[in-house]
Amino acid sequence: MSAATVILNPTAGRGAGKCLSSQIVEQLRVHGLDFELDTTKAPGHATDLARQAAAHGREAVVAVGGDGTVNEVLNGLMQANDSADGPI
Asked: Could you read off the pLDDT of 26-48 as tens digits, one per residue?
C-alpha cells in the first residue's frame, strides 16, 4: 500500500496539470517517495478520491491543482473524518 496519494487535476492551470504530471511523478520517484497518483476525471472526483485515500489509511493526501482541487480534497478528507471515530 502506498503511504501517500497524490490527486492531480489535469485541467488545472489551463491544462498545466496534465503537462506537468510526468515531471511530478519523476520528482517524487527521484526522492524515493512511496505514492499513488490518482487523476481527476470530473468535477467532484477529487472529493471522492480523497475520501477513499483516507479510508485506506494513507499517511498523506496531496492536492495538485488549483483552489477548486484543494477545496475538493479538503472536503473529501473532512467527510472521511466525519464518518470515522476520531481524527484522520
From this structure: 999 999 999 999 999 999 999 99
Cβ count within 10 A of residue 11: 17
In whole angstroms, give the CA distance from residue 88 to residue 86: 7
Instruction: Please confirm, yes or no, whether 34 is among the known catalytic residues.
Output: no
Could you tell me which residues come within 8 angstroms of residue 75 by beta carbon, excluding any fewer than 6 positions away?
A: 47, 50
If you average pLDDT over every residue of the chain, what do you get? 91
Residue 58 belongs to a domain: yes
- What pLDDT, on the 0 to 100 scale, is given for residue 83? 75
Q: What is the CATH number of the domain that holds 64?
A: 3.40.50.10330
Sign, CA dihedral 69-74-76-77, equals positive
Angle (deg, nearest 10), helices 67-83 and 45-55 = 40
Q: Which of 34, 38, 48, 67 is catalytic?
A: 67
